Amino acid sequence: MNIIFVILIFGVIIAFHEFGHFLVAKLNHVGVTEFAIGLGPAIFSFTKKETKYSIRLIPMGGYCLMVGEDEIVDAENSFSNKSVLARMAIVLAGPVFNFILAFIFSIVLIHFTGCDPADIQYVAEGSAAEEAGIQEGDKLLRINGSRIFNYRELLLHMQLEKDGRPVELTFEKPDGERYTVTVTPKLNQKGEYKLGLGGGYTKSENIGTDIAYAGLELRYWVKATLTSLRMIFQGKVKSKDVMGPVGVGGVINDMIEEVKDESETKKEAVINVLLNLLNWCVLLSVNLGIMNLLPIPALDGGRLLFLIIEAIRRKRIPQEKEAIVNLIGFVLVICLMVVVFFNDIRNVFF
Questions:
Q1: Which of 164, 238, 248, 338 could form a disulfide with 193 if both were Cys (CB 3.0 to 4.6 A apart)?
Q2: Which is nearest to 28 in space by CA: 69, 85, 104?
Q3: For residue range 154-181, what is the model confidence (pLDDT) as tens digits?
Q4: Are the C-beta atoms of 80 and 72 separated by less than 8 Å?
Q5: Is 18 one of the catalytic residues?
Q6: Nearest-CA neighbor of 302 among 88, 60, 62, 100?
């Protein structure tokens, strides 16, 4: 049963991404020959007007196949025949729709679970935070000069900086007075460096608050994703910490079972599972949006890079050269997917 939830999560996120391309292509009068969810052989399909709609066997991908997308086609409804701005809009639509989906899900999630403003709700006795003069009720504004809005941003910083180096924190007291302190984390009995601070979730007051904090939620996940990518490129992430669809599916499955065990009633279990799945949808949708914006050939970001170059040069890049670069990028992406897949298998089963 849990595998169905995993497939649905990936299916919804990918479908919304491709729907972004589809919708903006239609608005620009570009012909779409096929709108597919999944890869491999079709298990269900139908055709309406010029477009074939299909669901394919492998639930890990999808595509929106447009007229003249990969070749110059001299037709009025051809992608290649549209202005560079129209083509940019179509390419950007997929990632943008991922951010829109994450924002919508965040509104629902915050409405039911609340938000985590950077308010200090707990200061441990004898901790580094207490020695620095931090008090309950203070609001954390900056970490090493960088503005923050969610308490989880402090947790993210502490997860990344595990060597106990001092951190500069700027707070605002309830009366509006601001102060900045430098705190050196203390080593606890588990061998972890801690500040001795605690935050938490507060109930959202109204739909306006839901929307405002949904924007901050989206900001947090974008920041967390970009930070993770930077760490990967810097070689600071171990292979066991990198997950693909199989690894994510395993973690989601474990989460569902854990939530079921901790819930007292079946109704409570269903609600808690759905809220946790919404949280995963937000995380994965933001991840998909950002990954597709990377300037890698064969991804949306790679296509966008070619279009930006075309706009600057005011001249198309030769189609055969772009095709070769995209093919190389596609092969590299497939190779990366294979590596991540076997890494997932090793982490999950061994």
A1: 164
A2: 85
A3: 988 888 777 788 999 999 999 999 999 9
A4: yes
A5: yes
A6: 88
Task: Quote the CA–CA distance of 222 and 124 in Å, as a whole number.
Answer: 30
Question: Which residues lie across from 162 on neighbouring strands?
Answer: none
Q: What is the Cα–Cα distance from 224 to 221, expressed in whole angstroms? A: 5
Q: Which residue has the tokens 């549209």?
A: 82
* Range(s) of the chain covered by CATH 2.30.42.10: 122-198
Q: Return the structure tokens found at 242.
A: 């990198």
For range 198-211, the mean pLDDT: 86
If you classify domain 122-198 with CATH, what class do you get?
mainly beta
Token output for 50: 């010029």
Cα–Cα distance measured from residue 4 to residue 125, given in angstroms and rounded to the nearest whole number: 46
Check 18, 153, 217, 322 and give the catalytic one: 18
Check residue 239 and give its pLDDT.
63
Q: What is the pLDDT of residues 225-269, one digit of tens each?
A: 998 888 777 776 666 666 777 777 778 878 888 888 888 788 888
- List C-alpha distances in Å: 8 to 22, 252, 281, 290: 20, 12, 10, 21
Measured torsion, CA atoms of residues 231, 233, 238, 241, in degrees rounded to the nearest 10: 70
Give me the mean pLDDT over the 134-156 stretch.
Answer: 93
CA distance 55 to 181: 56
**What would you report as the CA-atom Rg of the chain, rounded to the nearest whole angstrom?**
23
Amino acid at 304: L
What's residue 158's pLDDT?
86
Q: What are phi and psi of 35, to 5 degrees?
A: -120, 110
Residue partners of 305: CB distance under 8 A and separation at least 6:
295
User: Distance (Å, rounded) from C-alpha 85 to C-alpha 234?
Assistant: 34
- Compute the distance between CA of residue 184 and CA of residue 166 in angstroms, rounded to an integer: 4
Helices 266-293 and 84-113 meet at what angle, rounded to 10? 150
Whole-structure pTM over 0.70, yes or no? yes
- What tokens appear for 6 in the block? 């995993």
**What's the whole-number mean pLDDT along residues 182-196?**
87
Q: What is the pLDDT of residues 269-328, one digit of tens each?
A: 888 888 989 999 999 999 999 999 998 887 899 999 999 999 999 888 887 787 788 788
